[in-house]
Write a structure and sequence with these properties.
Layout lengths: L5 H50 L4 E6 L5 H8 L12 H11 L7 E5 L3 E6 L4 E7 L2 E6 L4 E6 L7 E4 L15 H19 L7 E3 L6 E5 L5 E6 L4 H13 L8 E4 L3 H4 L1 E6 L5 E4 H21 L1
Parallel strand pairs: 1-3, 4-7, 7-8, 10-11
Antiparallel strand pairs: 2-3, 4-5, 5-6, 8-9, 9-10, 11-12, 12-13
Length: 302
């Protein structure tokens, strides 16, 4: 193997020193650039900090919407103060605190309006339905907030739910038991479907078994409806509405069986005298259309 000459060894050594020098210069430039960037970022943070303190102070608090409480009470519970930085508050947490501490406040919204205005949008929690509870009633808002418990009476226009078990209802809170929450969700779906079908006379829901739902309607809760489960919910509600608009007298004490509707497309009406009448969906739809056409003709004659 040939040996290297002195010239070759000197050349290789010089090249290695040049490469090492380039690497040191490159590292120095990176360190300098990184240091400059840190200084700039630090300066920007200082500027932002002082500008927020000077330019974004709260100078105006506005409260709109349904006000179940005075402005002073709402502001006091919120903890928001004029002169504080508008970005120093977590408004989601404040809205939850207002809803928790003020019984008739619900779904509170808080918005920033720069440079220094905070807007509270208030919503009043109103009695919407009742749960039977140990022979008395729990009154709840539409969103499920407990407004009253151990009530002996309920307002006439509230819906009543039977057989939803709760262990320890707390006024101002929502129901936490998973099974009870599931049944309340079922109730909401039933009621929304009934509203879409324009059925307004359902007042009592028995949710003991959500696979075999029962509710009571009519002028005096005199019609018992065996509804089955939520499968094809809207179809069944529309059919029930057609029955009320056609052959069923809602003033007669009776029962309606819709449990076989999914397979037979029929319902059974049982008046109190036990005379069974089978109502066919197609015929009932045709009867409802004829009734509607007759009403429209009468309106034209008038």
């Amino acid at each position: 193997m040939p040996t290297r000459t002195n010239f070759e060894r000197d050349y290789i050594a010089k090249k290695a020193r040049r490469n090492a020098l380039r690497r040191r210069k490159r590292r120095r430039r990176i360190v300098i650039r990184f240091g400059v960037l840190l200084v700039i970022l630090f300066a920007l943070l200082i500027c932002v900090y002082f500008s927020l303190g000077v330019f974004f102070k709260i100078d105006n608090i506005i409260i709109k919407g349904e006000k179940p409480y005075s402005d002073a009470t709402i502001i006091k519970v919120s903890g928001v103060k004029k002169g504080e930085n508008i970005f120093s508050y977590n408004f989601n947490n404040i809205a939850k605190k207002i809803d928790n501490k003020l019984l008739y406040a619900e779904n509170t919204e808080i918005k920033r309006k720069l440079p220094g205005t905070i807007l509270f949008l208030m919503h009043k929690a109103k009695p919407d339905f009742a749960l039977e509870f140990k022979g008395k009633y729990i009154i709840l808002s539409e969103k499920g907030k407990i407004l009253k418990k151990n009530s002996l009476t309920i307002p006439k226009d509230l819906d009543i739910i039977l057989n939803v078990k709760v262990s320890n209802p707390v006024i101002g809170r929502t129901i936490t038991e998973e099974l009870a929450k599931s049944k309340l969700k079922t109730f909401t779906e039933l009621r929304n479907s009934a509203k879409k079908a324009k059925i307004h006379n359902i007042k009592t829901y028995n949710l003991d078994d959500i696979q075999n739902i029962i509710f009571y309607c009519g002028s005096e809760n005199n019609i018992k409806v065996e509804f089955g489960n939520l499968e094809q919910l809207d179809d069944k509600m529309q059919f029930l509405a057609a029955m009320f608009n056609g052959s069923i007298d809602e003033h007669v004490q009776s029962e309606i069986d819709l449990t076989e509707f999914l397979t037979s497309r029929q319902a059974i009406w049982r008046p109190i005298e036990d005379k069974i009448k089978v109502v066919d969906k197609d015929k009932e739809d045709q009867s409802a259309k004829e009734s509607k056409s007759s009403e429209q003709a009468d309106e034209k004659d008038q």
